[in-house]
Design goal:
Order of helices and strands: EEEEEEEEE
Number of strands: 9
Distance between the termini: 40 Å
Structural class: mainly beta
CATH superfamily: Immunoglobulins
Radius of gyration: 14 Å
Largest sheet: 5 strands, mixed
Number of domains: 1
Oligomer: single chain
Shape: globular
Number of helices: 0
Length: 117
């Protein structure tokens, strides 16, 4: 079934795993999605999104959007979404839980808790 999306409404964060080993090696790939009020990814959006760890010792070590012509530094925490999606890579160096937050001036922000193991 094909669904037409509505206007951009908010950001949604989805982690590949929400528990990260505190070994200095493990990372969590957090997908930042631009969604409409029904939760559908809005693919024609390329808004600038910033991501950061707002609580705890985790760190956003890299971001990527998959756009072949985007030359933003890999280590930047501020990047445009591409087709409504952005990837943030989070790493831990301390045994405390963290909260990652994504913000955009165009829509509601989102946060996600990651657990240190």
């Amino acid at each position: 079934m094909v669904t037409t999306t509505g206007k951009t409404f908010r950001l949604r964060l989805v982690a590949d795993h929400d528990k990260i080993a505190v070994d200095g090696e493990d990372v969590s790939f957090v997908t930042v999605e631009v969604v409409d009020s029904d939760g559908n990814v809005v693919p024609l959006v390329n808004d600038r999104i910033s991501g950061s760890v707002t609580s705890g010792p985790g760190k956003v070590v890299a971001t990527e959007n998959g756009h072949p012509a985007d030359f933003t530094e890999f280590t930047s925490q501020d990047r445009k979404a591409f087709h409504g999606v952005l990837l943030a890579i989070v790493k831990y160096h301390n045994a405390r839980d963290s909260v990652i937050t994504a913000n955009s001036t165009e829509m509601k922000s989102a946060s996600l808790s990651l657990v240190a193991t």
